[in-house]
């Protein structure tokens, strides 16, 4: 039995699609934890065991992990969290206890690059995510953290600005080339680990995308794919914080994002070398053609 958290999210939803196609042929049952089962299509609900509730709740994970062999773990967004520790390790503590109580063998988690960089201890959300990894690994379960750079899919948050004004924003220098990955590739990496559980111990699995790209590179590709000019505007970290708080994000969440972006400017995502094993296949152009264009033109 494989348990999937966040089955309606960008990564969890794609992972569920993959496993629905591949797990039955391998004799694997699927169970999902979801707050609102109505967000899952009826045909999906008919094929999985549904546990309703939050996977931060002790009673919910106790039910979900009963008889489970493996778990996909991702924490949900928590824009009004009182602290980043509460959003990551605090949210995960009940699950860590349940993993031990039910003898779950393998866990695959969504995390971030940066562990071995000088700024790992002051990188906001990334620092909190790495501490969550340590909490899970400390249970004794076989654990693989999928460590990721910025998601291509994060640009969907700016779809209106891209569509209406031909502008997207960020805090990195316009010509700084960094890794960027598609969430569907992260889901595929998770599926491979969950379906072949021959691995032991703890470790990280980087998902780096096929190439490093700058914001100027992203603007060029988006312009070509969308058939309209798209440009990048760099914003200050203070402007980022003000924009987040203006949208209702709590102080801890906003400051965590500011600290994370400051750390990315200092090389947080650049500590792992791209190899055939760490490169993921989806190019930014392909992602724009298959995902962004449909959303912007809808």
Biggest sheet layout: 7 strands, parallel
Compute the separation of the termini in Å: 38 Å
- Beta percentage is 15-25%
List low-confidence stretches: none
N-to-C order of helices and strands? EHEHEHEHEHEEHEEHEEHEHHH
Name the CATH homologous superfamily of one domain.
NAD(P)-binding Rossmann-like Domain
Shape: globular
Helical residue percent?
A: 40-55%
**Count of helical regions:** 11
Topology record:
Layout: E1 2-4, H1 10-22, E2 30-34, H2 42-45, E3 49-52, H3 58-65, E4 70-73, H4 84-101, E5 106-112, H5 125-137, E6 142-148, E7 150-151, H6 159-165, E8 167-170, E9 178-181, H7 183-195, E10 202-206, E11 212-213, H8 215-226, E12 231-234, H9 237-246, H10 251-265, H11 284-296
Helix pairs in contact: 1-7, 3-4, 4-5, 8-11, 9-10
Structural commentary:
The protein is 42% helix and 17% strand. It has 298 residues and is α/β, with parallel strands linked by helices. It has a domain at 2-150 and 181-208 and 267-278: NAD(P)-binding Rossmann-like Domain (Rossmann fold), CATH 3.40.50.720. Strands 3-2-1-4-5-6-10 form a seven-stranded parallel sheet, sandwiched between helices. A three-stranded mixed sheet has the order 7-9-11. Strand 1, helix 1 and strand 2 (30-34) form a beta-alpha-beta unit. Helix 1 crosses helix 7 (183-195). It is globular and about 50 Å long. The protein starts with a strand and ends with a helix. The model has no long low-confidence stretch (mean pLDDT 96).
């Amino acid at each position: 039995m494989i348990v999937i958290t966040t089955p309606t999210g960008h990564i969890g939803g794609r992972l569920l699609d993959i496993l629905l196609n591949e797990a039955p042929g391998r004799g694997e049952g699927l169970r999902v934890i979801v707050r609102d089962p109505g967000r899952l299509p009826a045909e999906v609900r008919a094929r999985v065991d549904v546990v309703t509730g939050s996977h931060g709740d002790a009673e919910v994970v106790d039910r979900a992990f009963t008889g489970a062999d493996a778990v996909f773990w991702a924490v949900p967004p928590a824009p009004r969290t009182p602290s980043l520790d509460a959003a990551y390790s605090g949210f995960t503590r009940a699950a860590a206890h349940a993993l031990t109580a039910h003898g779950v063998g393998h866990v695959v988690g969504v995390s971030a690059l940066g562990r071995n960089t000088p700024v790992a201890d002051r990188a906001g959300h990334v620092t909190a995510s790495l501490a969550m990894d340590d909490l899970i690994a400390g249970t004794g379960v076989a654990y693989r953290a999928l460590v990721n750079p910025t998601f291509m899919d994060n640009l969907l948050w700016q779809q209106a600005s891209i569509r209406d004004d031909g502008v997207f924003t960020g805090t990195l220098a316009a010509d700084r080339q960094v890794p960027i990955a598609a969430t569907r590739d992260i889901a595929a990496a998770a599926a491979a680990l969950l379906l072949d559980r021959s691995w032991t111990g703890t470790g990280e699995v980087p998902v780096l995308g096929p190439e490093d790209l700058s914001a100027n590179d992203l603007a060029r590709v988006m312009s070509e794919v969308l058939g309209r000019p798209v440009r990048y505007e760099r914003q200050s970290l203070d402007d980022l914080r003000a924009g987040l708080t203006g949208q209702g994000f709590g102080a801890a969440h906003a400051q965590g994002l500011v600290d994370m972006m400051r750390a990315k400017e200092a090389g947080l995502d650049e500590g792992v070398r791209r190899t055939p094993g760490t490169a993921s296949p989806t190019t930014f152009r392909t992602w724009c053609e298959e995902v962004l264009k449909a959303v912007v033109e809808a």
